[in-house]
Amino acid sequence: MKIAIASGKGGTGKTTVATNLAWVAARKGHSVTYLDCDVEEPNGHLFLKPEIASSRPMGRLCPVVDEQKCTHCGLCGEICQYSAIVCVGEKVLVYPELCHACGGCMLVCRPGAITEALRESGKLEIGQAGPVRFVHGLLKIGEAMSTPLIRQVKEAAPDAGLVIVDAPPGASCPVMESVRGTDFVLLVTEPTPFGLNDLKVAVEMVRALKRPLGVAINRAGSGDDQTREYCRVQGIDILSEIPDDRRVAEAYSRGVLASEALPEIRTRFEDLLGRLLGNGSSRVAQREYPA
Amino acid sequence: MSELVGIAPRSGPPVRELAVISGKGGTGKTSIVASFAVLSGNSVLADCDVDAADLHLVLEPRIVRRNDFTGGKSARIKAGHCTACGKCEELCRFDAIFFDGPGNGVVEKTFRVDPAACEGCGVCAWFCAESAIEFGPVVNGEWFLSETRCGPMVHARLGIAAENSGKLVSTVRTTARRIAEERGLDLVLIDGSPGIGCPVIASVTGATLALAVTEPTLSGLHDLERVAELTRHFGIPTLVCVNKWDLNPEVCERIEARARETGVGLAGRVRYDHAFTAAQIRAKAVVEYRQDGCAADLRAVWATVGAHLGGSGFQGKGV
User: Fold this and answer.
1) Which of A55, A56, B200, B276 is the most buried (most CB within 10 A)?
2) Which domains are seen in chain A, by residue range?
3) Gap from A48 CA to chain B (nearest CA, Å)
């Protein structure tokens, strides 16, 4: 079973929830893989402290032009929707950072002057954090596109066991790539106007992707009651409320798992895990997403 | 929007752009931008966190103009023309084509494009032998020109499950800059998004100054290092502000030491204070809600940032 932990707003506690869930699940004997799909700013390793067993560069395909074979017909520039390849007179210019690796230029090139080569855009690291299998990706600085890397992080997950996907914040391409194909999406929010506004955006995104979802309210008690009201009206289950507790924030600041430091917080995450495994699997049968 | 790209500044004061970014999410960017908007009194606001825009919740903009955002193209298969040859599915690299479209009398099932997965490359349409695939621009967001109690504001909403947030960010920024030039305002305040990817790059490239807001946690330290490397990569002078600094003074000092080593300036510290949330619930900027506590810290940070930005609005306000 694959569970994605996502949020619209940043800093609501995705990584806290994802790492604590992975840790309590492993303690209960589940076979667990933690995937950090926030390849722009991954933080899971700070809490799970994995021993990295393998590290390899990740890349995405980019066109390479053989000037000898090129007839300067300009078709490559015509098909490219991203202005990543243009033919100017007797020269073909490639802008790798704009390329989406659709392969169009290579397909239209009649003389076969275009091939594709892998261009490094980050690295993939796999390791073991105690009983938890750990995978994360690190986007190279200055690289704009994170989705190809996220795809590769997800491909490194086993098909069996419990997979916890720690998604990046927001509601656009990188989040959608992280959430796609998971069995359940847990949206972590905080009970503030910003938290609620961004939760609504995230709920619409998850619904557009036809994934079942639930909500966890972090720092419960710190804001107002609008989030609970919204969930009630929308018929969204609130699967956990994690209290606003300075000790949780301080444990986080030191890179310590709250479940390890605070037994009452551990109980919260154990309850959440129980609900997710019950909740998620009963809904997997009704999945509407095209397989 | 292409006609707006690369506008040369008109006569008048040069427009400065302050990009407030963070690496890690939820460090207080938007609350800080709202307070800066109040304190500056003569800036244009650009909410470039188009994925999860929140600045409007505090500044309550009155929308003057709405504009559709067409950031890319999308493919659609005409079921009546599809012969189910499968070429589109074979060529699509984004797993956006599914064999579950309606039948048409010739074939029982046709192919269908999942709009949420389509990246708008157009390869399927180009190679469809039956010309059964429509390929054209899609509206995937909206952007707004507004007035607020702190000045003009440009903000946006990316469509649900839509792509191209970087392009929408560029649209917001370019428009904000144009308005600043037209009205003779010399500062654009950019509320950025978390991370270091495409929308962040679109928010910071070419900015006068970046203010990275972080928190005294190991995640905050780790993410700040990456975002500072990003601004260095693009040659943008950067200051760091540690929000909630007293949550962990030791990590706060490590962050500031690390900043000094890497050529990032210090903008100051803001204490951990429930006034941040309380102000937000009342739709007020922190400095409108309180005078002391974290509001005093924010004023001090603004003075330092203003001194680094320079410009007419800051004469005599430097530190």
Assistant:
1) B200
2) 2-31+160-284 (3.40.50.300), 59-119 (3.30.70.20)
3) 12
Distance from CA of B57 to the nearest CA of A (A): 7
List chain A residues with CB under 8 Å of B280.
192-194, 223
**Rg for chain B, CA atoms, rounded:** 23
Interface of A with B in 113-172 (CB under 8 A): 139, 141-146, 168-172
Task: Give me the half-sphere count of Cα atoms (radius 13 Å) on the Cβ side of residue B237.
Answer: 12
- Kindly report the nearest CA distance between residue B198 and chain A, in angstroms: 4
Q: Right CATH number for B72-138 from 3.30.70.20, 2.40.420.20, 3.40.50.880, 1.10.287.3510?
A: 3.30.70.20
- A77-114 pLDDT per residue, tens: 999 999 999 999 889 999 988 899 999 999 999 999 99
Report chain A residues whose CB lies below 8 A from the CB of B218. Answer: 43, 46, 253-255
Q: What digits encode the pLDDT tens for the residues B258-306?
A: 999 999 999 999 999 999 999 999 999 999 999 999 999 999 999 999 9
pLDDT band, residue A158 (cuts 50/70/90): confident
SS3 B214: strand
Of B122, B193, B283, which is closest to A170 when you measure between CB atoms?
Answer: B193
> For residue B264, how far is the Cα from the chain centroid?
21
Residues with Cβ < 8 Å from B45, sequence gap 6 or more? B33, B37, B55, B59, B148, B150, B151, B152, B153, B154, B155, B176, B188, B189, B191
Domain B2-70+140-310 has CATH 3.20.20.140: no
* Residues forming a β-bridge with B241: B213, B268
What's the predicted TM-score (pTM) here?
0.90
Residue B182 has pLDDT above 70, yes or no: yes
Residues 236-255 of B with CB under 8 A from A: 247-248, 251
ipTM of the complex as predicted = 0.89
Closest in A40, A41, A194 to B57, CB measured: A194
pLDDT score of B116: 84
Burial class (CB in 10 A: 0-12, 13-18, 19+), B80: exposed
B91 interfacial to chain A (CB closer than 8 Å): yes
| Comma-separated ranges of CATH 3.30.70.20 domains in chain B | 72-138
Side chain identity at A94, as an amino acid letter?
V
Q: Which residues of A touch B166 (CB under 8 A)?
A: 144
Closest CA to B176 of B188, B186, B184: B188
Q: Over the stretch A207-228, which tens digit does the pLDDT of each residue have? A: 999 999 999 999 999 999 999 9
